[in-house]
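thought: fold this chain, then report.
action: predict
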Amino acid sequence: MVIMPGAMLGVLGGGQLGRMFVQAAQQMGYPVTVLDPDSGSPAGRIADAFICANYDDPEALEKLGSQCAAITTEFENIPANSLRKLAKSCVVSPDAYSVSVAQNRIAEKQFLGINGFAVAPFAVIQQADDFADQDAAELLPGILKVSQFGYDGKGQIKVSSGAELLAAYEQLNHAVCVLEKFMPLKSEISVVVARGSAGEMQTFPVAENQHVNGILDVSIIPARISPQLASQAQEIAGQVVKKLNYRGVLCVEFFVLHDDTLLINEIAPRPHNSGHYSINACVTSQFEQQVRTLCGLPLGSTAQLSPAVMINLLGDVWRNGDPDWNIVLQHPSAKLHLYGKAEARTGRKMGHFTVLNSDIETALSAALHIKQQLDQS
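observation:
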C-alpha cells in the first residue's frame, strides 16, 4: 500500500531522531503526530499533533492508531506489545518482532548467532552463580552489559577480574546481563540500510565511528577502510535486514579487528546517530528514507554527494552557558543542527554539526578544529 503526502504519520518517541523524522515528513507534505511522555519533547514541539502519554497507554495508543495511516518508532525501547496493538489498525514499521530482537542484547546475539553472523564471544549472566562458570572466566577482560535499556555507554561496565565482575553486577542491581569479551579493535564502523515492503534495499556509505565514554563523538564518511571491507560490511548489513524480514531503516554497528575481521556489535531498528551526515551529504537522508519505507514509496538514492565528518554536540559544551555558535556558522561548509532540548546535561546529545569537503582529511581537520574551539569557549 502506498501512502501519499497529506496522510497523517505517527512516531513513537519525541527525541532528536523523532524530531528529524518529523522534519523530513513535513518537508514531503506529511503531517505528523508524536506520542511521548515528555511534554517538552523535541519532536513533540514541532509536530502537527502531540499526544503526551506513556508508550503503553491504551487510550493514547488507540488515539494514535485511529488518526494515523502509518506509524514508526524513534528508538528500540518502545514496548513490542504497543506495536502489535497499533498494527491492528494501521501500518507499523518496524514491526514488533524486529524491535523485540533489537531491544534485548540476549535475543539480539542469539538471532545473530543462529543466522551465522559473527559476534564477540559472550555469556549470559542471569544470577551471581553464573560468574563461577568457566565460560565467564574466559571472557575476562570483558564488558558487562545490561540486557535491556542500555544505550550511549549506559548500563555497561568494563571488568578485568572476577572481583570486578561481581562488583559491576552489584552496581547494575543484579540485572540480567551479557558479559562480552573485550576485543582489541582496529576501528568501529556502521552501516545504515533501508528496506522497502517489497524487499528492495538501499545501503548508505560506511561510517567510521569514534566514541568517548561509550557515546559517539565523531563519524567520518566514507570510512577510511578498503573498498573490499566496505563492501563486505554493506553486504552483511543487507543480510541482517533480510534475515529479520525488516521493513524500514536499520543500522548495523561493527567492530573491525586488526586482521579486518568484522564482528557485529549491535543492531538498531531505526535511523542512527552515525547516519546524521546523510541530511547534508547524501541525495536522500536516512530520515527521508524512513518516510519512504514507511509509506511504501520508492527508495531514494543513497549516493554521497560529498565526504563528510559529523561531530556530536553534548551538553558538556554548554557548561559556561550557550556556546558561541559563530565558531560553527562562520565555516562555509559546516552545517549546524540543534535538537531543541530545554536542558543541557553532561553526556546528553544536544545537537551535531557536519563539515563537508571534497577531501575527507581536510573535512576531519576542520571539524576537529571547530570542536576544539567549542570545547574551549
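thought: worth noting. The two ends are 51 Å apart (CA to CA).
final: C-alpha cells above.
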